[in-house]
Amino acid sequence: MMTKLISTALIVVLVAPIAAQAKGKCESMFKDGTPASIFVTIVKKIDTRLTEAGRHRTLHDRRQANQLRTDLFQLEAWARLHRNWPDEGERKMFIRLRDQTKELEDVLGAVDNANTLLAEASQRNIPALVRHLSDELHAREKDLKRVLRENDWMTNEGRTRTSKILEKLDDVKWLSTEEHVNYMRAEIANEIAAFEARFDSEIRPVLMRTKYDHDAVELFVHTWRRQIRWYAIYMQTSRGLIGLKDAPSKPSAEAGRLLEELKANPFANLLTTEKTTVKVDRVAYFELTRLIDQIGKVKDAAEMFFYIKAHLLASGTVKNEAEAEATARVLYGNIPEETPRRVQEILAEYDRFRPLAKIRRDITP
After folding, report:
1. If you average pLDDT over every residue of the chain, what do you get?
2. For a pLDDT cut of 90, what percent of the chain falls above it?
3. Which range has the worst mean pLDDT, 8-17, 278-287, 301-310?
4. 256 CB-near residues (< 8 Å, 6+ apart)
5. Do β-strands 242-244 and 278-280 pair in parallel, antiparallel, or remain unpaired?
6. pLDDT by residue (tens digit) across 60-107?
7. HEC assignment per residue over the chain
8. pTM above 0.70, yes or no
9. What's the 3-state SS for 287-306?
10. CA-only gyration radius of the chain, Å
11. Interhelix angle for 62-80 vs 222-237, to 10°?
12. C-alpha distances out from residue 347 to 34, 90, 207, 278, 292, Å
């Protein structure tokens, strides 16, 4: 969910601008455009954002928080791609980096979600729910403050997490650029293949139900979107190492509409340069982008229904589960029955285009 309200008293933490001025081998051995250099670029962006937040003594700005989350997603994605790195010690480092980055992104997401729910309760003018969600937001803000301090993302003494990450990256025995790119291509292809098998055996049967509960939305609809979004993030984060093929000269009517609809969408257009090493099907990638957006809108609407329902009960606004359900339906409609219909329409489109199969074909080394 997108944040509609950001607390102006989110967190007070100081940060020393250490990693932004980090020096050492990272400055000289990582050539721009290599897979290794992308790690350094993202880490320094995160450091810059945290340093700026520290100067203002808070992380309350919505735009700032969302930009930081975007950078964290990219760092987590790049670390995920290295979770099978050949060197065992370095592999463990990448896994720790993935987990630490995910923890910070998760808690930022929890603050974002609490803000969104509080804004919704305020708009609906439900006083008991507003009080309850204000307490929820305060608890999530405390979690964020704890994670930032305990993991040294922001500190006024010693080394920051970002400076430590740069030092660890400096010690990695990197593959040649060609070997490194082929490693990542194989990782993406293998991950897509594994997910396609899991999707058909575990996720698709739940998506075909006629009514969803919260678990169906969170564990299956959300999982579907989150997983296919990782493939888009991998390619976006590659900074042009992975690009797009030219559009077909004679696309089908549906493909033609898709290409026209998304031609100006920044998420659908991958950077392509002289350093691009592999190109994937443009129509497939555009369809992947559209699917991520469509599933996200349906998921957000369903999550709002179920979150508000749960908090109506927890806040004492209603007396029991049945009353919470009835109130949520008055506010948002018959989400448990409407969501499956919409998801299954999206699933039919997913099956027609088969974007993951086409991307896997192109990216396999």
Report:
1. 88
2. 76
3. 8-17
4. none
5. parallel
6. 677 788 889 999 999 999 999 999 999 999 999 999 999 999 999 999
7. CCCCCCCCCCCCCCCCCCHHHCCCHHHHHCCCCCHHHHHHHHHHHHHHHHHHHHHCCCCCCHHHHHHHHHHHHHHHHHHHCCCCCCCHHHHHHHHHHHHHHHHHHHHHHHHHHHHHHHHHHHHHCCHHHHHHHHHHHHHHHHHHHHHHHHCCCCCCCCCCHHHHHHHHHHCCCCCCHHHHHHHHHHHHHHHHHHHHHHHHHHHHHHHCCCCCCHHHHHHHHHHHHHHHHHHHHHHHHCCCCEEECCCCCCCCHHHHHHHHHCCCCCCCCCCCCCCCCEEECHHHHHHHHHHHHHHHHHHHHHHHHHHHHHHHHHCCCCCCHHHHHHHHHHHHCCHHHHHHHHHHHHHHHHHHHCHHHHHHHHHCC
8. yes
9. HHHHHHHHHHHHHHHHHHHH
10. 22
11. 80
12. 36, 39, 8, 28, 12
Q: How far apart are CA 244 and CA 235, in angstroms?
A: 10
With CA atoms as reference, report the closest residue to 247 among 228, 267, 231, 262: 262
Question: Would you say residue 10 has pLDDT above 60?
Answer: no
